[in-house]
User: What shape does this take?
Amino acid sequence: MAPTLSERLLNHALPAILLAYGIYYFMITILHTILVQRDPLAIFDFSEIREKAFARLWLAIAPVLPSVRSTGVVEALPSLLSTATGVVLELGPGNGGQVASFTNPDIRAVYGAEPVKDLHEDLRKSADAAGLQDKYHILTCGGQTESLVPALAKAGVLNEGMDGEDRKRGDWIGVFDTIVCVRVLCSVPQLEETAQTLFRLLRPGGTLIVSEHVVNSWQSSKGSYIGRVLQLIYTLMGWSFFMGNCHLQRDTAKALKNAGKGDDGWAVVALDSDSPWGTLPYITGVLVKKA
Assistant: This one.
């Protein structure tokens, strides 16, 4: 069914609204650092300022995101996440907005890789409220290989007795039964490398659950020239800087599919496209590794 005019306008305008909030919380963080913490020199540590600003932004917008995301994404996610089983890796869980959907009793452990420490307290509360008190383990790391793999090793998830060269060779293949990526692959520093690492971390037969906004495929019949141009405009306005290194122009589906190329690749690739005409088009679905 074709989107209504109001749906199109909301999708195209939503990044502008989010960007405005991002700029607002960035300025609030600077003022707080100067006036409350009385540490004006700290504002020159841009990485720290950006991290704290993004934490403030995320805590403010996360509760309302489900009401402004497309219907397809909202309806598909809970049922997909409820299939997570065994040992689970959740990449970039934020403050735990998806944790309540981990309802499968066969979940043995969940490792949440969240680099923003200011979100950990709320993440822990969300995990506890979902009944995952002893099962949910928070890791202070990002999704990129050089951050994620050492954190997993420190947590004892990877095979013990391996040195750095072992890990570089991928000798830690087959660790997780399920890996969950929801609005996180847009912000990892090296998308292709991260996708390859996630593929290697999956056990044979394991499932990668994804829901990510992606580049508008404007040259396809379902894409939109307007949506693609707006992605470029918002990027030039500082989207990545103010939105936690998020990128609007990533072909995440291609990166994930390429990560599983070869004889031991994906047995199933089932990714649905939602709002492909928009400035925030989504892919949502699963990729299952060959057993």
Notes: The first helix runs from residue 5 to 36. The beta strands are 86-91, 107-113, 136-139, 176-182, 202-213, 266-274, 282-289.
